[in-house]
Design a protein that fits this description.
Elements lengths: L2 E7 L9 E4 L3 H14 L5 E6 L2 E8 L5 E4 L8
Antiparallel strand pairs: 1-2, 1-3, 3-4, 4-5
Length: 77
């Protein structure tokens, strides 16, 4: 299984920590990102990477608690 790295980020895009998880799919990584966002109330979003590929960013807020959007191309946590 691939390794996904999840970064809970503050408003400025900085992350004080990360989690590296061996997960079966991008969908599963998204589920873990939502859980990570809930566990870190001070973060504004969670960015998920699989090796050099940005998988997704979950932002706090929105109908389901988060909205999935692609992060800016120039930003890498």
């Amino acid at each position: 299984m691939p390794i996904y790295t999840l970064y809970p980020c503050k408003d400025g895009g900085l992350s004080d920590t990360f989690e590296a998880l061996d997960l079966p799919s991008d969908d599963t990584a998204g589920e873990f990102a939502l859980q990570l966002l809930q566990r870190h109330p001070s973060c504004s979003h969670v960015v998920v990477w699989r090796a050099e590929r940005r998988v997704l960013t979950y932002w706090r807020g929105g109908e389901a608690g988060c909205n999935a959007v692609a992060p800016p191309a120039e930003r890498r946590p």
